[in-house]
Amino acid sequence: MTPDPRPSPTTMFDARAVPPALRQAMRILELEQTDVPSVDDLAERVGWSAGYLSRQFAAAFGESPAAYGRRIRLNHAATRLLFAPLLLSEIARSFGFDNQPAFNRAFRRQHGSAPGAFVEGLRDAMSPAVPLEPPPVVHVTARPAEPALCRRFFGPDIGAHWQRFFAELPEGIPMPGRYAGLIHDSPAVVPPAEQRYDCAIPVASIDDLTASAFAATGLDAVELPGGIHAEIHGCAPAAIGAAIRHLYSVWLPDQPAFLPEGDPMVHWWGEAAGGVTVTIRVHPAPEVPTPNMVPLDDAGKPLGSN
What we know:
22% strand
């Protein structure tokens, strides 16, 4: 892989120092990966001029909005290639490219090789996935989307992120006793300093006044993803990475009914006694009926359970 000279975020990134409009633009680029917004559209949505947004975004993130969005999409495309048996043309369309040749050129510029060669190199370099012992029970559940306040961090040190998050949390934030950590990038694809992580607190609701009041403190109003989740319950905090690897590399290949849905991978603290719940989003493979799922109540517990 060729070295990337672009400046990259560091683990000292402080969301409180980044204007809310820039964080909003960042999250729009991360969420809208198929119908990719133009810089003009992005600027209109955050209330800035296109030129001012481009300059301020580059100063905060080390690259233009278009380059940031393209890098995120190509990283996700590499992850999807690694774990989902999809055609290159399907993946290209999913990440905003009009045709496969355009996708191949962009992929080679970012990752240093063609998509197939890059993924084969990753597989050769990765150590074989070791099934967790004893084998965990994987629950397939339907989770509702939830509003939340979250703060962005960069880097792989999850424990340090949560220490900073709670130490710098402004007064007036409800403390529900359950928290969500959102991992947005695969360590197999993304360098450590660029790995995105959100510390999130679910809340009952967020109105515009609440969102703007907390925006200056580095907190963003987001929606925790709903949909179909494959979950392992009761994980030790130190085993979060191993549980995610198990879901992607051990469980998912044996489940032809499912394909990975993508970013983010979520782990829940305080949702149930006995450890952390680790989840990845999945969706039914084409022409496969939606399987039976266990719906969850507002506390994250299976409906009808005691």
